[in-house]
Amino acid sequence: MASWLRPFRRQQTLALPIFGAAMILYALTLAPTVVALFDDSLEFQLVAHQLGIAHPTGYPLYTILAWLFTQVPAGDVAYRVNLLSAVLGALTVALVYLIGLELAAGYRSDDGQQCWPGVLGAVIGAVALTVSPVFWSQATVAEVYTLNSTFVALILLMVTRAANNVQWQLRAPDQRTAGDDAPASARPRPDLLAPALGIALVFGLALTHHRTILLLLPAVLLAFWRMARLWRKVNSAPQSDAVSDQHTPEGTPDSLAAWLWGGMKLMIAFASPLLLYLYLPLRGHIGSLDGIYTNTLAGFWQHVTASGYGGFIFQNPMAVERNLLFYLTLFVKQFGWIGFVAGLIGLIVLNRRRLTGGITEIAFVTYGAFNLMYRVSDIEVFFIPLFLIWAIWVGRGGGWLLTVLRGRVHHPDSRVTGRLAAHLGLVVAGLLLTGQSMVMLRNNLPEMNRSDDWAVYDYGHDMMGQPLEPNATIVGIQGEITLIRYLQATEDLRPDLVPLAADDSSQRREVVSGLLDQGLPVYLTRDLPGAPRLWSLNAVGPLIRVSPQPVMNAPTTATVVNAAIITPITLHGYTISRPPSHAQLAPLRLTLVWQAVAAVPQELKVSARLLTTDGGLVAQTDAVPVHFTYPTTAWRSGEYVTDVYDLPLPDSLPAGEYTPLLILYDPAQGAAEVGRVALPPIYLP
Q1: How large is the average pLDDT for residues 426-454?
Q2: pTM for the complete prediction?
Q3: Domain segments of the chain as ranges
Q4: How far are the Cα atoms of 300, 354, 468, 570, 576 from residue 290, in angstroms, in the given order?
């Protein structure tokens, strides 16, 4: 091991418990299953299970790794893919700690003893990243950003380590430790090719995952240019042939042929991992969930280059506008004001370093410039490399401050009062730096903890558990349909059902119309503009049954009441049930069957409530009938309409009798009540 790092040999092993601590935190707050409908997380969970093709750029490396994690015998498939993010997030944290050690290595004490402030600073930086909310949020769900951050941290570590090795090898004799006082002309030339090959290989591998890794390239090139320049400066004196023959490694060639051969090696190291993209044509028969991938050369190239995303740089399709305050607030939310200031100190301190100075700064500038131009709604996740760099700066700034205060404590010329003040400053600084992360942990934990987030999973089981006809078709938008496909593929739920995705409402109408013309049963997952004018709609659990003709025969219900609410509307009957739920108390579901005795001139809303025996409100849900899809003005005379309302129950609900209450009101008349009916009391929970 190089002499400059020997004081930190034992401290490097701290990376393991740091990884373990971060892993425990992320595992405890990990999402237990699918948790989102309308982001990429659900897509990756299904794609990994099927070894399919993700959205551009295809993410072949991530898909393969995620598939390997689906073989882990723990939880369901979605949980296992979530677990991959937790492992990679913890690995990134450990790498940030090692980077902090590399940057602190030059600040050891003159007598060669371990400099604990540098080690503590590295720990502080790693912990700061661990509990930063955006990074933490991506470590608990199936997403690509923790793998990308692992590559960013690994490349920064490799570059920083290479720079430190070169700086140590080229130190002047009076700066070297005992036994390292060989003359400059006899010292071996630094092998720049070996670390460059390793970095090129990792770069190529990272490019099979996320192309923003190319934003690190300027920082890497700057570092190696500085290393080569420093070597030439220190070794400008002529060397003897014997020394030159003995100490000219392959990494610093003198001939054009050697340079060309080295360049070819770098190209091979960089390009060989890109063969992973052959995964796409090899799995082309599976295809992508949205169906946009075509297994042709043009389709492959378009998918890999993700040319469609260029509009977020050169245009602003989502009309996103952000100011300087947004970015400042974003960083303060991640690290707090103490961490923000410590990061600024670390930036200043690192900028004074001979070789390692400028590496993280250039990377910060390139990523920052890209993010300023990339106008997407979820820009926060693209800031993760910047948060990673800032965490490194937090560690270096904190380590430098502690080192300075420690120096004042042990300075031979310091008076007693000065030493006491330095001691106090050292304690206060340490408490502030470590306490900031503890405050962030406490503040962010309630929001970041997804361990009880079963809502999306329960919604999927609710849809699939309804008494749908065999081979019925469910039409919805991509996220909802992907959830159905996930449950079919991973849990073999209702494989006969046909899920169809159509994000555009006009396309959904065409699909529904075509299916009804074939006489097939059709269900919707959400409101479809124009549907009430064309068809009759009824709620079936969370789904909406589309019928070409009104339902004129009374559906079966648990209780028949035939209670007239208002002149045109009668409550024919109702059924009380509890939908599938992982909540402590499952919601109370009221399935109502209305009858339109005559045309309804008003567009009324329904307020479903649950009251205590003394009239206190326990739960309430207000909606347009049939999940906001079938207004009363569209009801046909004589039609029966099935309507569903879920009343969420508080976990602390005491056992006892409760009364369901139904109110019809006119929102156009200031929510004026037009009729009500109280159902017989029920016993809960």
Answers
A1: 90
A2: 0.89
A3: 12-448, 454-548, 550-685
A4: 15, 50, 25, 44, 38
